[in-house]
Predict the 3D structure of the following.
Amino acid sequence: MLTLQCPYCGVDAEETELQGGGEAHLKRFGPGSNDDDFEGYLFLRENQKGIHFERWRHAYGCGKWFLAARHTNTLEVFGTYPAQSTEPPQHIKDAISAKLPGWKWGNFS
Amino acid sequence: MSTRLAKGGRLIDSTKPLDFTFNGKRLKGYEGDSLASALLANDQMMVGRSFKYHRPRGIVASGAEEPNALVNLGTGGKFEPNQRVTTQELFDGLTATSQNHWPSLEFDIGAVNQLFARFLPAGFYYKMFIHPRPFWKHIYEPFIRQSAGLGKAPTEKDADTYEHFYFYCDVAVIGGGIAGLAAALEAGRSGARVLVMEQEAHWGGRAVVDGVMIDGEPAEQWIDNTLAELDAMENVTLRERMMGAGVYDHGYVLGYERLTDHDPKLAGPRHRLWRIRTKQIVTATGAIERPLSFAGNDIPGVMLAAAMRDYLVNYGVSVGDRTVVVTNNDDAYRTALALVDAGLVVPAIIDARPQGGGELMEEAIARGIRVEKGRGIAKVKGRARVTGVAICAQEGEGAVLAEIDCDAVAMSGGWSPVVHLWSHCGGKLNWDADQAMFRPDATRAPTGDKGQPFVITAGTANGHLYSAEVLVDGYTAGRTAAQAAGFTPAATEAAVGEDASQAPLLPIWLMPQGAGHALKSKAWLDFQNDVKVSDIQLAAREGYESVEHAKRYTTIGMATDQGKLSNINGLAILSQALDEAIPNVGTTTFRPPYTPISMGSIGGAARDELFQPIRKTPIQGWHDENGAVYEPVGQWRRPYTFTRGGESKHDAVKREILNTRNNVGLLDASTLGKIIVKGPDAGKFLDMLYTNMMSNLPVGKCRYGLMCSENGFLMDDGVVARIDEETWLCHTTTGGADRIHGWMEDWLQCEWWDWKVYTANVTEQYAQIAVVGPKGRQLLEKLGGMDVSKETLPFMQWADGVLGGFNARVYRISFSGELSYEIAVPASQGRAFWDALWSAGQEFGVMPYGTEGLHVMRAEKGFIMIGDETDGTVIPQDLNLGWAISKKKEDYLGKRAQERSHMADPNRWKLVGLETLDGSVLPDGSYAIAQGKNANGQRNTQGRVTSTYYSPTLGRGIAMGLVHNGPDRMGEVIEFNTTNGGTIKAKIVDPVFYDKEGAKQNV
Amino acid sequence: MSNAVTPLGGAKTNIGGLTLEDMGLQGMISLRGDLSSKALAKAVKAVTGQGVPELRTANVMGGKGAAWMSPDELLLFVPYAEADAAVATISETMKAEHHLAVNVSDARGFMRLSGAGAHEVMSKNAPVDFHKDVFTAGMFRRSRLGQVAAAFWLDAEGGFNVVCFRSVADYVYRLLEVSAEAGAVDAL
Amino acid sequence: MRRYSVFAIAREALRYHTGWERAWRAPEPKKKYDAIIVGAGGHGLATAYYLGKNFGITNVAIIEKGWLGGGNTGRNTTIIRSNYLQDPSAAIYEKARSLYETMSQDLNYNVMFSPRGLIMLAQTEHEVRGYQRTAHANALQGVATEFISPQQVKELVPIINLEGPRYPVLGGLLQKRGGTARHDAVAWGYARACSDMGMDVIQKCEVTGVRTEGGKVVGVSTTKGDIDCDKLGIVVAGHTSVLAEMAGFRLPIESVALQALVSEPIKPCMDVVVMANTVHGYMSQSDKGEMVIGGGTDAFNNYTQRGSFHHIEETVRALNETFPIISRLKMLRQWGGIVDMTGDRSPIISKTPVDGIFVNCGWGTGGFKAIPGSGWAMAELMAKGHSPLAEEFHMYRFREGKFIDESVAAGVAH
């Protein structure tokens, strides 16, 4: 039963207030993109047993989407941040490195 | 025999007798009794039958760990199977019956299984019943099902109610023994919000029964003072009859509070399920005594030594007149002393340890009790109850040295800390070889959302068996938890516990250690599931070496007590058989709940009318009053049709359609989604959302639009109206309203966050009523107000105005092919407006129509319906909706996906109309068959029916479907299948069956 | 508006020391925009007489005020009959900047739960800490009640004001009623 | 291998069951195998079994990091059905179901396949149409199903509440030969048969790396050393992404926790399996008497084998409504398993970018019922490079937009 802090309204929201939105930081590929890029965007997933960056919506709260860095095996949450981010904030990356030295996820490390 | 003593019984009130029945027998107990103590007080030694062999079973424990004494409790709507007599408080009028026997507890046919016991070893059913094949389902399995199953199935709906309760605290203490109370005291004094749960109705745990002294006084004194102090603290909540059922991630704890089980006459919910969020958890859950494995250890009258002490001290009940005590540790001596104190006979204490015990043994000897050191029990004599024991050398093979007559046996094989809650979320354990127990490893505690440890274990649950250590551990745990939760506790003087020093325990996993098969196959590990030492050894021999394999193969620990008594003994036997150290063999996983919790409590108040919300339109009341037959659509219930008198649904639908086509019909369309999209970039945004252009829609006009998922599949449709330069109003399907609004917000917040667009879901702001049919305009004109003429308000336009005194927004859109107005008024006036239309419409023969009429009429017009023509795999191109896909646009959601090879494949099935040759109605979901079979032997197909109805307008069946190259095959006759192997011929036709040129809607 | 009715039709129940009641017709406006903008503050002031509420608070008094819904959204409370006029005023005041003001008065159910134990009744239905020292007057929260979305705040008189969607007003009302009838927990 | 039979039992009884041999050997790994299967769950063991039985390939190792059958094979709700909508699904699930019919005899191990009948309740008009469509599809796929009336449902399931205040039962899709089997026995039976064919079932051996040369697999590295192979089958459900990453490719799957629970055992009161998809609950009664109940999946990636409690709550709430009598039963135990979900919720049985590596995954919430069919197809694919049953389930279908989407039948796969 996860609790995630919504970076917009500051509420420590219980999972039942939230709606999961799958992998974060996906780059959209539209018309004209090649098959590899499109498949990567829509289907291929990191799905690591370890660090994961993911989308959540505070659906029953302020209604805003936000992103979270979470460990898929310990469920530790390294931080949450606004959906309007093209990459995780440095302090969150640092927090991850402290626990998972040399971690790599997609283009991030 | 077991009976009630003249004196003693600290928990009962002998001035308050209670009546109850067991198997119809009228029995007496006292207020404060547990059902177990009351049964024993009435010499009810046998209380049930075991699962596999149907062996006689008696009460073996005094708490939640009881594996044997399960009963059917109560009757009718209050009937409950498998209730533990040890955790059921007695109340006046209680009725209980024993389980798993036929015809009676005393005489049970199933007991013949015992005779074949030798032929029914662990896993026997994997090796038998294999031939002949049909026999398993028809003969073997039915027999096995009947003989299994324990309690009866309830036959009536639950007469009780339940509820949930969210609770937040800093420290949750689970267990109200002295360790838990000490922890609570320390945490409470720090100012932290503390919740203390005790599963029983009494505080203090074992301390009082064990005669512990604290600060020089009997433990009872300290417990009372502590409770008083805790009670006085604003920040501390004490709950008894509440079990910590489970520990979940991120500090989530389930508390299972039993409110009326002890007195069903009380008002209010039966159980309350607490959903607790806490920063820290202290599990002070105590320990459970282990049985010893000797032949006949399952015969009624053989009981855990501490349990026997409980019955004596707490309830004034003696289990036997002559009790032999058998042990491998000092604690059981307390039972012997208590029995003697109560004037009962203890013919011998059989101590498997060559040197025997310490202080307590000396005291026993001093009191004249015979102590047999280095001895064990070869076998227990008796069938339905103990008549005596044969003793032997523990280190031998069971040669009988002597026999002792007795009617009860008190056994103690040492203690196992209750580590369940510690382990639920991944807390790790260490094996303590000296005390022969698994103890929580504080350095490998469960971790929370910040990676911090969030469970601390204290007292006996942490492996401490001396009250002095238990108390210190409790205080420390409380202090540590409070600190971890952000408080600074003032270190206080810990109370000092004292109790007799004890000689070391000697691990004994089999008695005697050299027992042969005859004895091992009578030495029970799991009393309920009939698992014996020999079964575990067989599993190991056959290669079921993992502890999980052995468990599943023998079913040890899978009974309703989940192995509270059997797991460690079984594990030890397994490790011996594998010649591995116990920690290397490991434990099975601990899963919630600690003890079973009612399904009712899990559901809580969500039942009947509150099971799920039922969304209601402002006009629902009218529907209720006028014969609406509902169909669930999402959480709404929309009128399917309105039946009149004895009319069938089918006739009602037919009437509604014909009346709408010939006169005028009303449809409550309030459930349709309505989303405002506004901003400088709103047009650009909608162009991405819809397959067609919306940015160029003129103000005042309406346009039908399609929305696709990024996968290219058609997911919603509806009419969009341009309200002003910056504002559009998007209609969605009923089911789509919330989904599409969320979809819009997702793209605006996560992808195009720099676009200036705001959305608002105003679905429920309006009651929307469709006035449909040739006389619709007359009806509105009679209401009076705005001009609704063709000239001022032509087809596919909208206008604001006043109708019959109501502020209204009128859309000239049609989903039926008739002259049609969809009119939105403020929801608060929806009912009044409907009533106005209703009375004004009488002279025009107005009738309401429901969703089925809506569906049929749209099908007659060849309009597609999301969810019928689409199913998540259909793209607009399949539905010949190419005209609604902008060629100008570079991009829209789903466009890229639609370029994929399979989506662009010219061979996709496409939408057509279908007509049976005989006018009959094609079956729903029927497939068009093609020649031959595929590689997997399945009949090839070339299409399928997506919608099929009887059309009252045309007086024949009509259908729409997707057919391979359909649009190019007009007039061709193809065959559709029926579920009974038949086929129906149907002709491919234009999907528009009615008013092809659209003359009727455009007037 | 004479023929306007609320979804609860003026319902009122007294259970023990608790009162649950329909708050009647209430003007509500959903206002989306830049909450830090002067024009927005001006508009809010103009129609509610109140300032822009702080994060997760409501300053509603006597049916007028505002509640913080999200970083770019407020829920304004005005007299029912004045809602449309208020929307016009806002649009005028904020015409220079990107915003959305829409009348949602009819899209909501609005009820109030007051009396001893109200905190506990709420606690039976929402995953929120309602402890008296934690959930204090003026605090505003959006969450679940049972299985539906709801927003609520505690007023100065100790009553919980509950706003939900119109279609589920019956459900929410009944949910609170049943929870109240079930009796006190005596834990908060 | 000594055959199991009532006579063997009798013989052994006379000597206190001292003569039973190991069900499977516990060998150390060899240097090289023709084929290595990673994952000794049902799917992996079945793959190995059919490699041997159908193609005579017996120089095979099945490597398991824990204990065989310890993953989802031993954690599911044991439902077996093949009433699927899409042709490829119906084909492989029906193949599996038919193999279950004779599995006990084929393996000489009683897996207790019990074709007691399975009903999917239709509780909305939309569901009625959906299941009627499935019934028509099944009729052409050789899958025996029928759409039955509420009264027929009531006769088969006396404890059901047809008139819930919310969703009345409007009918149901019945598969008479659907049912359940003893999940552990399936894994144990296959393991015993594989071992008997000379294959090595190697437990407590974790794969730490996949070794390739020039785009072709040459072996794996494990906690018991390097092992070479010509062909490698990855059959590890929730952990497939982890293995794929070792082999250097990504998959369209995400791992989530799926939960289940059982009640305390009661005397038989429900002989068929009932699935109520509108309210998201399904239930059957085991031979022990427990009500076996399936819950939902979490909305987040999860490897913990623990789920969130609110899914249990939603499921039990729904079943209390559908079967009112269970309200007074008690939940004995809840647990979770890690299932891998693909982009269309259908499985992947496929070649991969690495020559010689094959993957079988993505069974999501419905893997147990497919075990024999899945193994049959995977074995054929590994042995011949082609399998009609696996044809449509290749991993490249997503980029082609060629989904196998079962959710369209208003059903959720279990």
